[in-house]
Amino acid sequence: MTTTHLPLIATTCCAPLVKEPLDADAADDHARTLKALADPTRLRLLSIVASSVGAEACVCDLIEPVGLSQPTVSHHLKVLTEAGFLTRTKRGTWAYYALVPGALEEVAAWLSAP
Amino acid sequence: MTTTHLPLIATTCCAPLVKEPLDADAADDHARTLKALADPTRLRLLSIVASSVGAEACVCDLIEPVGLSQPTVSHHLKVLTEAGFLTRTKRGTWAYYALVPGALEEVAAWLSAP
């Protein structure tokens, strides 16, 4: 069993968005994280994984609901995994994707903290 | 004085991202809102406006910090205004942009609410 778990691209180091002017590097990092979310298929995949039992789902159960090919779904899941929102675990034939606890909350806190 | 104030594209009607599978229309709406944020220049502009006195800034003070042309800056500000994150008020020669109270918090709540 192999689990891929990458950290969020934008780290928790940084001041909230509204607190002080962002420098260019921090803006690039945060934009990259938000771009991973800013796609309707990826939002749907995240919501399906997150609302599954144990916040985990087999890739085999993610293809039909979004109505796209397996390679396309796998591409979107890879983007979400690389951005730190999902982990990927191989069990037997299939890959299972799980929501990374706290990852969405980290983005939310950065966006809205005073 | 004219103020442009548009509602967030994605309304507050919807269940949080992680609560249930998103339907295609809701996913489109939320992706559009997140795309408005998912750009380094727009994040920098938002952070400058938000951290200015009264969370408002003249477009004349936004051009130099991001190092882009006025038309480019105005384009990005228009995207943020149309997405509901900023208001635009014309006073004399200049346009002033202000953060919409609660707009970022609305996105954050949708992303992270249990």
From TrEMBL, chains A, B:
One protein family per Pfam: HTH_5
PANTHER family the UniProt entry points to: ARSENICAL RESISTANCE OPERON REPRESSOR, TRANSCRIPTIONAL REGULATOR, ARSR FAMILY
Keywords: DNA-binding, Transcription, Transcription regulation
Keyword Heme: no
Protein name in the entry: Metalloregulator ArsR/SmtB family transcription factor
Gene Ontology MF term list: DNA binding; DNA-binding transcription factor activity
PROSITE patterns membership: HTH_ARSR_1, HTH_ARSR_2
Originating species: Microbacterium limosum
Domain of life: Bacteria
InterPro entries, alphabetized: ArsR-like_HTH, ArsR_HTH, HTH_ArsR_DNA-bd_dom, HTH_MetalResp_TranReg, WH-like_DNA-bd_sf, WH_DNA-bd_sf
Family matches, as NCBIfam families: HTH_metalloreg
DNA-binding among keywords: yes
Segments crossing the lipid bilayer: none
Domain annotation HTH arsR-type: ranges: 22-114
Signal peptide (from-to): none
